[in-house]
Design a protein that fits this description.
The structure is a homodimer.
Chain A lengths: L1 H16 L3 H10 L2 H7 L5 H8 L4 H10 L2 H10 L2 H10 L2 H8 L4 H8 L4 H11 L6 H4 L6 E2 L5 H11 L8 E5 L5 E6 H6 L8 H4 L7 E2 L4 H10 L4 E5 L5 E6 H19 L14 H28 L1 H6 L7 H25 L7 H30 L6 H31 L9 H24 L1
Parallel strand pairs in A: 1-2, 4-5
Antiparallel strand pairs in A: 2-3, 5-6
Helix pairs in contact in A: 3-5, 4-6, 7-9, 8-10, 15-16, 17-22, 19-21, 19-22, 20-21, 21-22
Chain lengths: 454, 454
């Protein structure tokens, strides 16, 4: 896709240079809007906006919806306020809030004064929901119908509204006070198409999966995924229906949450924007706070080594393996922490499995530690002439065996412990586990050496 | 949800103990199948199967679909072969292959002989597509219609088939040879419900987003997400329509791929099953291969330190900060590698951004390195009496500054380099970056010390 879209760019620019109205109109209308947006992805925001002027209003809105997010933000921020405002008024209610959230505030204010009152109120209301809640990602473009309608009437009503709705596949049945009463799927309508006098009341499902407007977006997304829903209704405290969250928004939430988990595991406070759009000072702060915590954790290794300084001066060849010992433990700890944290987050591992987890890590630690010990023994014998007696030759392998086991156990137990304490196990990031295993590694190394050398 | 479901378990067990047919029937039919499955999640596979016997056949299939995967596998593997086979015949075509893939082979063979020939052939055909391809996750339960049908005829046809279809929201138009010609959405049918003499041919979209049966499942999932599709058709080389992949399968793919990325970043070859279900030897191998590669990378630090052994013996207080220096560089490298790798994978960072990335990492490295240098200076002065002259007091801070910058740059450049070489940047796992930064750290530390001490 990206290859063809780049190939087409020069022609598109030529059409713009020549103001070739016929060709540009043809370009905007010939393909599905998603493909058209693809072909435009190499243009500047100015060029992009100029091309969009040749699309019919409905097509323009649709193409705009499929442009990449930064491009949308640029266009809204830089182009003629009046024209932008009329585009904003036509966008899906969740999409426009998404875009406006990244446009500078003073520009948003200028645009909002130009948007019709109904849409303006809708935007301000949605913007008021805190980031990360169901309210912040829902759309208000939803089919709400009364229960006394017949199948036939419902289909007619739908066919009138279809253009403005995010999904027509779930119809929500509400009473006069907008309280959610039930759900009829388009599938049920179609199945009952020959009983067109039947009323929605007789078809509707009343045991509904719904969410509250203040629910965490990740929980909502998991619900939608678990029950294979196309959309989930969003309710307030009085079960009034405020909007819906659709399956495509759920995918966005999962992407966002997966990125956050990865960043936490890498020892970074999750970013709110993409890497290239996050200001350098924000990025420094989000990395720096963890780097400093980890620095002080690592400082403990200096205290530990300080205790053994005299001994190390007598056997200087022990020093050169310090980084090897530490990193082997850290890597082993990283691996088990990664597996246990992701297992806990996905629900595959439960707290009650802790004994099984420890058993498995002990077994794996023995196997991997044993193998690294073998590698370590050969390396030590080749690298230092001091490691030629049996006792000295055993220091490194024995240390590696114990350190790898300690790493595997610590990497598994620390996240389990965090979870048990009611904290997010992903806070126990890999660097943090590695920091703790580093200290263990030094203590093990020095004590094994003391034991074998005395 | 999980709280209420646990609360209900004793009552459910009591009903089973008393063989209370009326209550058990009521339990199976009263709630939506997804909720019923929830309430059953604490039961043993035997109990679960006994409860399912009280459900109507259609409800039984639906409840079973919402049971957790390990429970499904257990039930299929252990219960009466004939009864299990008739359940399998009724399941959605992608779901049953999913379950059978984790059932021991000899049991699958026994079950398949009891499944009707049509379903058996379908299962064998789907099982033949390699893991990770579009074919392996598609379903064959799809609405295929001829283009000459009218809207009215199409609706009637749909209402007949609806029970067996995974989605009725996209209708695929095929010719006699099953070649995909176009798509009509249920939305279009509903909008044209009053022009019921109109033919599908006049409504259908012919510029379609589709995928090939051998396409990588991740690419397919990204396509579905990008274009906000409910389903994507799966074609063979001749554009014959083999099946569809629906939005809920796409969410599963994203979960799977996100887990794989995290595992790669943690230095583990991705698991095919959940942690607790992966055999210990497989797990050891998937971790061990990386642990050993990393071991030999870390061994290079021993060579590096070996070169400076004499010098270190003269200034033994330098030794105690080795782990601190190494881990500071490693953590800084981890952070930038995590951000750059995930940015490259999501497409937010492109190869052409490399200069911007380097500029940002240099700036961030300076800020973070500067701050750690400050912490390092204070720590060194408090911890060792040797770091009291200006020159010796500067060794640790200067080293930390340079090491943090080197880490940030290496963490950014290594994944970019991998990507440039056409390799998967996630292969440049965090431990691997840390390993390389370890060596840089030692070389920097020793050279700074030599420079300031001479």
């Amino acid at each position: 896709m990206s290859v063809e879209s780049t190939l087409f760019l020069p022609e598109l620019r030529e059409m713009l240079a020549e103001n070739d109205e016929a060709e540009l109109r043809e370009f905007c209308e010939a393909l599905p809007p998603a493909r058209t947006a693809d072909f435009m992805s190499g243009l500047s925001p100015d060029e992009c906006w100029r091309v969009l002027q040749y699309a019919k209003p409905e097509t323009r809105v649709q193409i705009f919806t499929y442009l990449e997010h930064p491009m949308q933000v640029e266009i809204i921020s830089t182009q003629d306020r009046d024209e932008v405002a009329s585009l904003i008024a036509e966008l899906a209610s969740d999409d426009r809030v998404d875009v406006l959230n990244d446009v500078p505030e003073e520009i948003v204010r200028e645009i909002l004064t130009r948007v019709p009152a109904v849409e303006r109120r809708d935007i301000l209301r949605l913007q008021a929901y805190p980031e990360g809640t169901a309210g912040s990602i829902m759309t208000t473009d939803v089919a709400k119908l009364a229960e006394h309608l017949t199948v036939r009437e419902a289909l007619d009503e739908l066919s009138r509204q279809a253009g403005d709705l995010e999904t027509i596949y779930y119809l929500y049945i509400v009473d006069e006070g907008d309280h959610l009463r039930g759900l009829v799927s388009a599938r049920q309508l179609v199945t009952n198409i020959n009983k067109s006098g039947k009323r929605l009341r007789d078809l509707m499902e009343t045991e509904l999966i719904a969410c509250h407007v203040h629910d965490d977006q990740e929980e909502v997304a998991q619900k939608v995924a678990k029950y294979d829903l196309l959309a989930i209704p969003v309710l307030d405290d009085e079960r009034r229906m405020l909007g819906i969250i659709t399956h495509d928004d759920v995918i966005d939430v999962f992407h966002e949450e997966a990125a956050e988990d990865v960043q936490r595991l890498g020892g970074i406070d999750p970013l709110e924007m993409s890497y290239l759009h996050t200001p350098i000072l924000t990025l420094s702060w989000k990395r720096g706070m963890w780097l400093i915590i980890l620095f002080f954790a690592a400082l403990l290794t200096a205290f530990a080594l300080d205790r053994y300084e005299g001994r190390l001066a007598t056997f200087p060849w022990l020093i050169i393996f310090i980084p090897l010992v530490i990193s082997s433990g850290g890597n082993s700890g990283n691996q088990s922490a990664t597996l246990i944290i992701t297992g806990l987050t996905s629900g595959e591992i439960k707290l009650t499995d802790w004994l099984r987890v420890v058993g498995r890590e002990l077994a794996i630690g023995l196997i991997l530690g044993g193998f690294l010990a073998l590698c370590g023994m050969v390396s030590a014998m080749l690298l230092t002439k001091e490691a030629q007696t049996i006792k000295t030759a055993l220091i490194l392998p024995l240390t590696l065996l114990l350190v790898v086991i300690a790493g595997a156990l610590a990497g598994a137990l620390l996240p389990l412990f965090f979870k048990r304490m009611g904290l997010d196990p992903a806070m126990m990031s890999n660097p943090f586990v590695a920091g703790i295993v580093d200290i263990l590694g030094i203590v093990i190394y020095m004590n094994v050496a003391l034991m074998l050398l005395n």
